[in-house]
Amino acid sequence: MLDKNVLSELKLFQDVVPEKLEKIARESEVIQFKRGEMVFRQDEPAINVYFVLDGEVELNLNFKDMVLKADIRYEESNFSKFEYMEKPIVVDTVSPGEIFGWSALLGSAIETSNARCSEDSRLVSISAAGLKDLFQTDPSLGYVIMFGISEVISQRLRNRTDKLIEAWGQAFGTSEI
What we know:
Blueprint: H1 4-8, H2 18-25, E1 28-33, E2 38-40, E3 48-54, E4 57-72, E5 78-94, E6 99-100, E7 114-117, E8 121-127, H3 128-137, H4 139-172
Antiparallel strand pairs: 1-8, 2-7, 3-6, 3-8, 4-5, 4-7
Helix pairs in contact: 3-4
């Protein structure tokens, strides 16, 4: 179980009373990742919500690009084929105190991006099922937390849209879309 004081330092939980933080802390643990390690992958089941304590986490999408690969085998003939190459597009960076993996609390609970540690990182992992149970028994707690998460979602969607428009412009060599 995590110390509730660690949670009280996170922006999302700053207005939550200590008794309720204690309940959330029972559903939480601190986990560590090395630089380059994946926390989760896009399209995996979303089970936990995460907060960065130390380090940094990149959220990225896999962009699949079809590329023509030419392989010259003989002087007179040329063999070529199309291959798909995956390129990650970083759509956001999560810093200490910030939440990610909030998809675990919504809808079908499927991760909508990849989360990779860009530095050695210490994260708080909170069971989404445990949080949902707390929200059922204490709707006012659910309201406060989900309202805070909605602000994060709004900002992340704006960032994702901006990054995707930028990538589109680079891919097609245009500054106007």
